[in-house]
Design brief:
With 233 residues, the protein is α+β, with helices and mostly antiparallel strands. Helix content is 29%, strand content 45%. It folds into two domains: 44 residues; 154 residues, Immunoglobulin-like (Sandwich), CATH 2.60.40.
């Protein structure tokens, strides 16, 4: 009985041992924090790599847009042909000037849009001059050109009105030299819009010199020469 009581007291004095599975040691806790640090570091590296790739793609896209859609160029005007559609010459002893003449010219002009987006333009204005004096003004309708498209416009105009033919210098030049030197100007205003985000107004013009061969019975086009220029008002 005494031995049993002594053994029981010794068991009560024996310290209890904590289970490692229930109470982890400091080493286990440190290992867990180290593992989380590596995981977070991998996440940051992955995010940085994604940001770099996205930035590179955006930069490439901006470069492509800059050299294609946003690199807007002016449209071009070209005089394809010019013909004499009608010629009239009148003589009268009752008029102040014995001779008056009228010539109707028809010119074909092309407008070309070199851009990757459409070009919307207003009516095209064509003027003919004789030494600074305006002989006439003609208009072609407004329109819109698609990307890399072109269109042709016909312009008809009476370029030798009676008020110009009343100039004795004109009549003298016609009869002595058989030529009449005219200049023409064609101008067009328009706008290019890229997705509605970028808009640019453009104005282009075309100056031409036209030499008419004039006789008492007909008028012919002897030569033409054209050069692009800034728009005139």
């Amino acid at each position: 009985m005494a031995d049993y009581t002594k053994n029981k007291k010794e068991q009560q004095k024996t310290p209890s041992v904590q289970s490692p599975s229930i109470h982890p040691t400091n080493n286990a806790s440190a290992s867990s924090r180290h593992s989380k640090f590596h995981i977070n570091r991998r996440h940051v590296t992955y995010l940085c790599a994604c940001c770099t790739v996205i930035t590179a793609i955006l930069s490439l896209g901006i470069l492509v847009l800059y050299f294609t859609l946003f690199k807007v160029r002016d449209p071009t005007l070209t005089l394809n042909s010019i013909i004499v559609d009608d010629f009239k010459i009148n003589t009268s002893m009752s008029q102040k000037n014995l001779v008056s003449a009228n010539v109707t010219l028809v010119s074909e002009i092309s407008i070309k849009n070199p851009n990757m987006v459409s070009f919307k333009f207003g009516r095209t204005v064509t003027k003919f001059y004789y030494y600074g004096d305006t002989l006439g003004v003609a208009y072609a309708p407004a329109g819109q050109l698609g990307a890399r498209k072109d269109t042709r416009l016909n312009v008809t105009m009476d370029v030798l009105a009676n008020r110009i033919a009343e100039d004795n210098n004109v009549i003298e030049n016609i009869f002595l030299n058989g030529e009449l030197n005219l200049t023409s100007y064609t101008g067009v205003k328009g706008r290019v819009s890229v997705f509605g985000l970028y808009k640019k107004d453009m104005e282009v013009g075309l100056n031409c010199s036209v030499v008419l061969g004039v006789s008492i019975i007909n008028v012919v086009i002897k030569s033409t020469a054209c050069l692009a220029s800034e728009l005139k008002e």
